[in-house]
Amino acid sequence: MGTSSGSNINQQPSSRMLPPRQQPRAGGLQTSLSLVSSDARLSPEEPRSNSDHIHESPTESASSRETWPTAEAIMAKKMENGKVENDFPEQSVIRRLSSADKISLRDIAREGVDIVCEKMNHLPDEFLEELKNNLRAILDGNGGSQQREDFFILQKLVQSRTDLTAKTLIRAHRVQLEILVAINTGILAFLHPNISLSQTSLIEVFVYKRCRNIACQNQIPADDCTCEICTKRNGFCNLCMCVVCNKFDFEVNTCRWVGCDLCSHWTHTDCAIRDGLISMGASVKSGAGPTEMLFRCRACNRTSELLGWVKDVFQHCAPAWEREALMRELDFVSRIFRGSEDPRGRKLYWKCEELKENIKNGVADSTAACRAILMFFQELEVDSPKSLENGEGGRLIAPQEACNRIAEVVQEAIRKMEMVADEKMRMYKKARMAVDACDRELQDKAREVQELKLERQKKKQQVEELEKIVRLKNAEADMFQLKANEAKREADRLQRIALAKSDKSEEEYASSYLKQRLSEAEAEKQYLFEKIKLQESSRVSQNSGGSVDPSQMLMYSKMHDLLYSGAPKTDCLPNERHPFRKNP
Description:
single chain, mainly alpha, two-stranded antiparallel ribbon
């Protein structure tokens, strides 16, 4: 029994998808996005004409309606857009559309391919995008019953047409083909702007020659399967779809899907339980004796045992599950073995219920619960020889067969114990490495703390040195201020001395100037005196010879009075500026 199911969402749409049982196990439970089939939107009263009667799965209610593309799909979209732009150039002028030029979704679903294509070639891209948006709103399912009725009408119109073949669709407009495929499949992803399939792929999806799962895209029937379901059910892909409900999702490494050991077809666990495909039956190995829980595949009508499958899933995938995933998987196992009459199946059912209750109450975490369920499976393997000793319900078996079975069980137990021992050793080494890493980290932190202490001490010394320098500079500033004050006082004193000396020099200059003027006046007086004497002598001589002019006598008398009356007045004051002396 395989350990995984669904499809790989990271797979390129153009590449071949591996069967679900071949998906990698080590990745744990992958619950990326889910994509329901188009049948999820159909009511039981109107089943799809291209498939058997569809059963609604309760687990599909949370599924997404879109597949988000990978980087390769986005590049393919850009390349395809380039081709479309070359085939249908954009309108350079946006004109107002008349009612005759417009086209509706019902026209696309009803009218001929060539007619619709001709109309679309003359419509602007904005109008075509609006058509796609209208269909997206209908497929979104948020508009109520009216939109669902509109979708059923469109789908009925498309599926009732006989002219929609691969030969006619090759002439269809790109947007027209996308809308027809979305209406026929009911999948919103075909209208997503970031997802682009080639025109050939879209046509093959429409005519049920390629899987409608965007992440699968395998040619169908997949692997050239010749079973009745793959050959007669239109659009069914045994690599990613449920045999019962015809839906697909991206759940892998989980108990949600049950696979057939013989034909590799897959079924939802809920669908299998609801349709009675999981029930008690005779042991697959012995064919007789005690019964156990079995899964009956609807495709090949053969059975597969479930206990070993559940054990295989948990041993390979449980260590990677988180709390919610582990709770979900335990719930699946509980529902599978709820009606089990096998002692081992009952024990497994009660163990799952106990672990679920412990996780809910916080008694055990996901790691402890995982260890507990794995240990429980080992205990079941050890207990299996006891049932052999009891003759498997009373039936006696040959001693050699019993020994062989016991040897197989012992070897399996030893292998499981070795696996557990290896896992424990790996966990111990991992823990030891973690402890060593913590020790190294503590040592590094201690060195960092010591370095920080040294750095702090160094900074403290630097601060103290700076404080000393500041104090020294403050003392120097005080000293220079004191010297500046003394210099100012000295300057004031020197200024006063200079002013006093200036006043003294002014006085000395005035005194010397007055003395000089006085000496000059004395010289002038002496000169005048000599001149008067000379004139008097001449006057006497003149008197002896004749009469004297009265006016001349008057002038001589004034000169005489002037000379003998004292020193003449100076024409320059002492404090006035002398014409021959510079100002101090």
